[in-house]
Amino acid sequence: MHMLLVITGGAVLLGLFLLFGHLWGGTRPDLALAAKYFIPVWLAVALINMWVGVTKAGYSVREELPILLVVFLIPAALAAAAIWRLSR
């Protein structure tokens, strides 16, 4: 359940980045740039989520790595799709 909430949070954060890209520029390249900025920010958030899982919840790094990949890749793939679509 926590993993689904984090992934949903990533999708919402991507939406916020796109909203601010629209508010500050409004053109398709500006929206694509906002989605590009989202990816490293989301990587940092996913790594912090992994760190909390290891240090506070007691999971090992080996147990948390697959979760990190899923949690990072799904919103990052949504961002990549947005970048591809907006760059056309």
Structure description:
- The structure is a single chain.
- The chain has 88 residues and is an all-alpha fold.
- The chain contains three helices and no strands.
- The protein has helices spanning 2-24, 28-55, 61-86.
- The protein is elongated, with a radius of gyration of 14 Å.
Short précis:
With 88 residues, the protein is an all-alpha fold. It is 88% helix and 0% strand.
Low confidence ranges: none
Shape estimate: elongated
Termini separation comes to 36 Å
Gyration radius from CA atoms, angstroms: 14 Å
Q: Which range does the strand content fall in?
A: under 5%
What is the number of strand segments? Answer: 0
> How do the helices and strands follow one another from N- to C-terminus?
HHH
Largest sheet: none
**Category from helices, strands and their pairing:** mainly alpha
User: Overall pLDDT, averaged?
Assistant: 96
Give the fraction of residues assigned to helices.
Answer: over 70%
- The number of helices is 3
Element layout with pairings:
Layout lengths: L1 H23 L3 H28 L5 H26 L2
List the keywords.
88 residues; elongated; mainly alpha
